[in-house]
Please model this.
Amino acid sequence: MPLEAPPAAPEHASLDDLVALARRVQSACLARGLTVATAESCTGGLLGHVLTEVAGSSAYFVGGIVSYSDAVKTGQLGVPVETLAHHGAVSAQVAVAMAAGVRERLATDLGLAVTGIAGPDGGTTEKPVGLTYVAVADRSHSRVERHLWSGTRDANKRASAAAVLELVLSGLAEDAAA
Amino acid sequence: MPLEAPPAAPEHASLDDLVALARRVQSACLARGLTVATAESCTGGLLGHVLTEVAGSSAYFVGGIVSYSDAVKTGQLGVPVETLAHHGAVSAQVAVAMAAGVRERLATDLGLAVTGIAGPDGGTTEKPVGLTYVAVADRSHSRVERHLWSGTRDANKRASAAAVLELVLSGLAEDAAA
Model:
């Protein structure tokens, strides 16, 4: 394998770093014939934006749902009302339900999801500003990661997008190695 | 009214310009008690991203649908298959159907839509790279604008997002003057 510069930590990802990650995701998905859909809460569309900064993204990126409100999470993504009520919108369970839901609704191979509290408001003692879950679902599995960012609203959004892109890439690398 | 610097032409809108426009949209919508949803094709999520760069956006921005593929335009936004077939995905008719569709599906007061060809590929003689339609729909009306950008893929996406934000603002100003 060619040597690559180590990726920037998600906390410090610039928009250019995100587009570089999106380029690697696009190459990996096209090589494997995989299509992708996104479900975004706190990132608000940033994830879809960076994926579509790369020319040719329409060959694998189908679209996404920005579920900023809980009503969109239940109505458009099929996140169960009970899951939201029991675990809250910012939880591993909701992240997984969003990833699986967008994958099913948009009929893609992979679903990518982000839910978190970008700040500066909206945090609680139990769920502070910066708490974020990112998830990736395929037909039979899902993976989810918890992060706690400490940047500005803008930096936290970029960190969240970087984290889910890195989670996709690590999953695809594991599949290739298996 | 306070004097304001004239807005940058959409073609030259930076991300900071877009966030400044988003801040004005947020103020205008909150003042009128209006909620907003977005339907994005060529911008891929950029519009939702800039709306949610402004703290407090969850008070009026409900979410959106990134309908990069035609299947998402019909399945998630209710754009009629015949409209797509007859006019093409990049058309005034589809822009209006996307704006009205997302407004209805996400149950908001306003629907904002963008469909275009960001480039560098995908253009034809009839529909060249840079051709973009932006639309805003409310309960009873819709407005649509045609633009032809001549920038890079990234600049064309920013120009399209700026154009739809300015279309919302001009519509709200007209309503206030009526």
About this structure: The domain at 12-177 of chain A is CATH 3.90.950.20 (Maf protein). Chain A is about 45% helix and 20% strand. The longest strand of chain A covers residues 61-67.
